[in-house]
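Section 3.1: Structural characterization of target chains.
Under the original work plan, the team committed to producing a structural model for every single-chain target entering the pipeline before any wet-lab resources were allocated. The record below documents one such target. The sequence was received from the expression subgroup and is listed exactly as submitted; it comprises 268 residues.
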Amino acid sequence: MPSLRTIVKKIRRFGYEAGPVERRAESDDVFFVRDAPHSIVRPQATYSPWLADPEFLETYRAISEGPEPHTLVDRFRCYELWQLAGRPIAGDVLEIGVWRGGTGCLMAKKVKSVAPDRTVFLCDTFAGVVGVTDKDPSYSDGEHADTSQQIVTALAAQLDLKNVRVLPGIFPQETGAIIRERQFCLVHIDVDVYQSAKDCFEWALPRLSVGGAIVFDDYGFERCGGVTQMVNELDHRSRSIAVIHNLNGHAVVIKFRSIDACLVSSCP
């Protein structure tokens, strides 16, 4: 039987949400979740460059198909990660919130073809979501625990990836020190809740290369209102970073200049 996360993610593919979310309807098309406006977003653009990328399509099939997929992140967000992982920016790749390893191994596959000397670090508790607060009323600690380190390493082996290193534990509290001297070109944060996203971002931004990107998954989804709030609290007037809301469900932060320290409320 498919897990709850599997069912929820499949529903998300069609633009809907599942879970204990309180809505306030404004009209047939617009509703509010904790005062944040929502509507079903269906961009009209038709250009689909992933269809002309056979390596991406093969890798995406490997991580998304089968009775127990390794990811249910849609191809639009996966292709964005694929593209970002291939940019000529110095540094390793970091993913926090790995689940069954799909998006992490997808990025590692791209990195292998363009910069095989780089490492893709995959960080997860393998015990579910942590750090739930009152900003995340749709979540409880321990959700999405239907995974293991062995599942991720098996996928990496299946895809012949030797550039992956798995770090089990709470990030950054338990595993951040292991890689604190590293520099990163791409950081993918898929932790679902406010405080965990904030902790990961504040740790990662000073270690992000100039020109590098931090990507927040699930930005703008109903159940992940805490992540949306956290990203919206960033200083959008900052000359050091640009915060982009991609309609595919990502928020992307691009770093323009060196930052020694940065708080969510006061990026220099």
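DSSP finds seven helices and ten strands in the chain.
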